Amino acid sequence: MKLKNTDTRCILFIILLYLFVLQNFLQDIFPVFKYYDEAFSLIAIPLSLYYLFKNKGKIFINKDFTKLFLSLFILLMVGFIGNCLYKYQPLNVVLSDALLVIKFFLAYYVSRKLFNETLIINYGKSIGFNIKLIISVLFILTIFNYIMNIWPSTYRFGIMANQLFFNHPTVLASTCVFLLASLFLVRENKKNTIIFSIMCLSILLTTLRMKAIGAAFIIIIAISYILIKKTKLNLFKLAILGIIGIIVAFDQINYYYIETDNSARSELTKKSIEIAKDYFPIGTGFGTYGSYMSAQNYSKVYYLYNLQNVHGLEPERTSFISDTFWPMVLGQFGVIGFVCYLIAILNIYEKIQKEFDENNLYFYVSKIICLGYLIISSTSESAFVHPLAIPLALLIGIKVKESNDNWNKEYDNKEMKQE
């Protein structure tokens, strides 16, 4: 039997689901999987060319995406100008970091092209089965891990911080958020959704990552409010949740930014403000500060600001260099780039708000979980440029049928006729 296009996309979605969950594990066995998230993001290029040729060179520009693309274009130009002016990094480092910086948005674009609400509704049972299977396996493995101590683990507060076969508890925590959001996306049974959500949150709690636990607490409040009130979260309500988040995470904030002298996060934050002033308004360019690539080819900027002796920022030990996100954006792209990145994220938030449907709250909840977690994560890790941001972009990008997005309008109409 010949598969329909939607059948193929369902299979693709399920494959992506497993690959995103297992990427961290697989990359230790097959190094090529280290680049899986970038590979998924780069699908945006052939997809764009495909639609360009399909429409005979005519580009459909949706006004909802104008701000997003324009802000990203300016961000890229600012970064490249900084690299051209100061020459702190070679071209290969610059291009690699440029991809890392925009890959979340490329993945969002790919998802928006490939997947939509109709696909998820029609194949929710099949997709939901696989999500619940993964959660069940992780839950069982967590129980066995506490009984038999199968995988090496770190300890916090005298308790084992569960990470299973992942290389860090944070990765497991982020995976749980992805699975939780996916579960709400397909929600084909209310009782099952509740049961598996509890299982997922239980696994997350065992990681003992205070940021993830705090994020889960805020997410539960947000979900409850949305489902009970049947309304969306505006910026004012999000600000209230943000204040709650600060209160919940104050001990961690106090430890890393106030009590601990010369901590990597504190120093990276303080120095990013100095860099933004010294290199006003464009920053030092791609791969120069607070990013993964700035550690791979140790940036001269660290010497200029006397950061080479800070624990975790040394040339031979760079484990804490990408523990912040916004200082990286401010340092590398200055005030202009910082504003552009804010606009890009705000544009995605606005798109989620426009797609709100009172009759299908669970799509909205799923996307809010993903974006909310990334924003919370951005306070203490690389967040939007981290590989774990890509599966969240996959869920955020799924197009709802009520959307006014015309990018795929011509293609979708043809596809419907063929089926």
Description:
By secondary structure, the chain is mostly helical. The protein has one domain. It contains 19 helices and two strands. The chain has helices at about 5-30, 35-40, 45-55, 65-85, 90-115, 115-120, 125-150, 170-185, 190-205, 210-230, 235-250, 250-260, 265-280, 290-295, 300-305, 325-355, 360-375, 390-395, 410-419; strands at about 155, 160. The chain has a two-stranded antiparallel ribbon. Helix 7 runs parallel beside helix 9 and helix 8 (about 170-185) packs antiparallel against helix 9. The longest helix is centred in the last third of the chain and has 29 residues, at about 325-355. Residues about 400-419 have low confidence and may be disordered.
Report the principal-axis shape: globular
Instruction: Round the mean pLDDT to the nearest integer and report it.
Output: 84
What is the helix/strand order? Answer: HHHHHHHEEHHHHHHHHHHHH
Number of helices: 19
Oligomer: single chain
Lateral strand order in the biggest sheet: 1-2
> What is the tally of beta strands?
2
Rg over alpha carbons: 21 Å
C-alpha termini separation:
14 Å
Strand content: under 5%
What does the largest sheet look like? Answer: 2 strands, antiparallel
From the helix content, strand content and strand pairing, which structural class follows?
mainly alpha
- The low-confidence parts are 402-419
**Structural domain tally:** 1
Q: Please give the share of residues in helix.
A: 55-70%
